[in-house]
Amino acid sequence: ALSHICTMTENPPLRLLTVGDGDISFSLSLKRAYPAISVTASTLVESPTELCKLYNNAAENSAEFVTSNCWKEQIIYKVDATNLKETIHDKKYDMILFNHPHLGDSSLLKSESLAAQRHHSLLAHYFHSAQDILSGPQGRIHVCLSGNQPKTWNVMEAATNCGLKCVSQESTSCPISKWLFPLNGDDCQNYHLAEAKSHYKPPRKFRNGKLGSKHFLARYGYRHRRTEGDLFQGDAKEMNVQESVNFVFAVDEKTTCKLPVEMDGNTNTCNICRMQFDSNEQLRAHLRTPALPDVSYKSCREGNPTTEDRNEKCSSLPTSAPSVSAKPTIVPTTESIAINNATILVEATVEKKYDSKRLKNICRQADFPLSEYIKSKSQCETAIKNGRVFVNRLVAFDTGRVLRENDIVTLVKEGQIQAAGGSSEQVANASVIKFVHEIASTQTPGLSVVIANKPVGVRCVGSFASSTLEMKTQKHYECSRGAEKLFCRTLTKLDTGCAGLCALAISPEPLEQQPDLESLNICYNFTVLVHGQVPETWKDGVYAKVPTKGVRQWKRQKTEDSGADDHDSSITLSSTAIDLDNAIFINSLDVLSISGAEQQDEQCISTLTVSSCHDEGRMANVIPYILRKLGYPVVCDRFAKREYSRLPRKMKNVLKQKICIGLYSLDIEFERVKQTVATEVHKRTQCEFWRNALEQVEQSTSCSLEV
Fold first, then answer.
1. Among residues 617, 381, 673, which one has the least CA distance to residue 502?
2. Quick one: pLDDT band at residue 343, thresholds 50, 70, 90?
């Protein structure tokens, strides 16, 4: 028996229609949560048999949803979300819901601008079509988007052009009652939330936020699934849907009339999504199937889409969108990452059977020439990270890149060119500690200050394990000096998750008895890449005090006096010099504006140097904290996921969630002698590197899509 089911005596139940519900779990979870509402599910798939082939849980969900001893609801097949009146006919609904709309077309992966344009068209035609089957002025149209899709796909513009206004925006983790019921207060009181039974729960990854966002209906069985379903051949079987938001729209009363389907005159512009076409025939073809996936479900079942499948749909695309060519024009690059300077080991042309396959899968196929050198996905990822793999003579940045028939894939000899994140030698030795400098004491025999370049993941302090920097340095110098026993102490307490230079003291005598170390002064110079365009005044440098509270509040032991007031959230900047023992000096070096079709407004990143003599450790944690409070979080800071999600996809593919901060320079004063020790700054922190890399990606994209 169902608990908390209300009895509707006066008004008919709320009628909902879900479109594009892949495995029917969204419709089923809605019905489980509010049994008194009426839910009709719809899908683009042609039949129940095809639906079960795409999703392994669809049969069970469908059976519970439609059978007479359960919910007795309906599933409608072959429903086009952009042409609902033709497929739904004369039925009317109080709300139409579209959860995570997506075309599921891999050919759009190469061009972010084309993907954004096509999905904007999908949203616009969905909004236009949904108004035809709304029950009345109180009707609502829902769509759920994630990440930067609302901005990238211009959802607000699509809705406004169709005469709609946004009446609600809520996170998917919020109770759906906040946006589900049109009259909010009145209707919500008529419906009661049912108890979530134990057998409703899907696998934990759909409930705990592992896929990016928690969904309120996950406890009732909702699972977000890919458009391709179980036939998807990539690594990530489930899509990441972080920062998902439910948008609810209503008809704007200020709009006098609904937009016509076609414009008058010879403009050949779709009046719904504003796409332009060369001819009236192309416009009419677009209006017949405005935003259907270029690749049908039938093509997905039989394998990968063919060139004919894509060309049939691409023939109706606007001229402003580049079309896929049979063989791309090869344009050699003049950047530092060039194939001209390398020895080619093997070069191969992608055959038709590998069309639309991903780079990391093709390279290791037995009948593909690169498989002689690349045997696994990890080897492919390493080769790409080292800058050894080229597609159409341009360096490949992404292992998941989709290749086309007649693309040329090249593997070059190792160690001859620069990689995306540094030289191949640097990548190969990423886990190796390098000793870059040694300062011998002129007053105490055997005493030295050693500068080591520490990689990420190595702990500085401690003799509890042989893997710490302190123990590795001690063993290294015991071997190099032929000494039986040396004493080592870490002077720089650099965070384990940060790479850079560290100072250590080495002596044959216990270091507590070395008074010369008291004269040692070190200034640490970090290089940081941050989100945003920092003020012009930062070019001359600004000072900020190091906060004594709040940075590690989650680690502090609770005391009777500790409370919310202990958290010092205010950071004050000053142009007046402050003693760097308890302050940092911030200097702006470069700023890069990132603009494109995938973003409505410009996004900026800035390269900074941050210097400090503060020597209590964890400076690689303190600096991001200060910059975050100032409104310029470090790129890949785990507390700045929203800013990270707005970066271009190609940039995120290279960053791989690695925080962009490093300690690459030390100013040392030892025994009254001053000197600077520096190492090569990682390119990940440099605006200049991203400027060249993003330009190169654009050149590669335009080359691959050029007719």
1. 617
2. confident
- Report residue 331 as tokens: 């344009």
Q: Taking the mean position of all CA atoms in its chain, how far away is CA 379?
A: 23
Q: What is the predicted pLDDT for the residue at 563?
A: 41
Give CA separation, 343 vs 52, 346, 362, 616, in Å: 50, 9, 22, 49
Question: Is residue 407 pLDDT above 80, yes or no?
Answer: yes
Question: What is the rounded (10 degree) CA torsion for 19, 25, 31, 32?
Answer: -170
How far is 669 from 253, CA to CA, in rounded Å?
73
d(CA 185, CA 190): 9
CA distance 594 to 599: 9
Q: How far apart are CA 229 and CA 237, in angstroms?
A: 8
Give the C-alpha separation, 589 to 450, whole Å: 29
Per-residue pLDDT tens digits for 137-154: 889 999 999 888 898 899
Lowest mean pLDDT among 102-116, 141-155, 425-439, 628-642: 425-439
In angstroms, the CA 386 to CA 380 distance is 10
Q: What is the DSSP string of 222-280?
A: -----TTGGG--SS-SS---TT-EEEEEEE-TT--SPPPSS-SSS--B-TTT--B-SSH
Angle at 643 between CA 587 and CA 660, to 5 degrees: 50
| Residues whose CB is less than 8 angstroms from the CB of residue 430 and which lie 6 or more positions away in sequence, other chains included | 455, 456
**Is 89's pLDDT higher than 80?**
no
Contact present, 509 and 500 (Cβ < 8 Å): no
336 or 349, higher pLDDT:
349
Q: Who's near 668: CB < 8 A, 6+ residues apart? A: 439, 449, 451, 503, 520, 521, 522, 523, 674, 675, 676, 677
Distances (CA, A) of 538 to 610, 615, 682: 11, 24, 22
> What is the rounded distance in angstroms from the CA atom of residue 359 to the CA atom of residue 700?
15
d(CA 533, CA 513): 49
Token representation of residue 250: 């209503």
- When pLDDT is cut at 50, 70 and 90, the band that residue 605 belongs to is very high
Strand spans (E) along 146-188: 164-171
Give 204's DSSP letter.
Answer: G
Q: What is the DSSP string of 598-632?
A: T-SS-EEEEEEEEEE---SS-HHHHHHHHHHHTT-
Instruction: Report the amino acid identity of residue 588.
Output: S
List, in order, residues 6 or more apart from 495 with CB less than 8 Å away: 617, 618, 619, 620, 621
pLDDT at site 697: 64
Q: Tokens representing 394?
A: 């341009």
* Residue 584 pLDDT > 90: yes
Look up residue 387 and give its two tokens.
Answer: 């800058």
pLDDT of residue 662: 94
Output the average pLDDT for the chain: 78
Least confident stretch, 142-151, 238-247, 403-412, 467-476: 238-247
Whether residue 664 is predicted with pLDDT greater than 90 in this model: the reply is yes
Answer yes or no: are the C-beta atoms of 627 and 606 closer than 8 Å: no
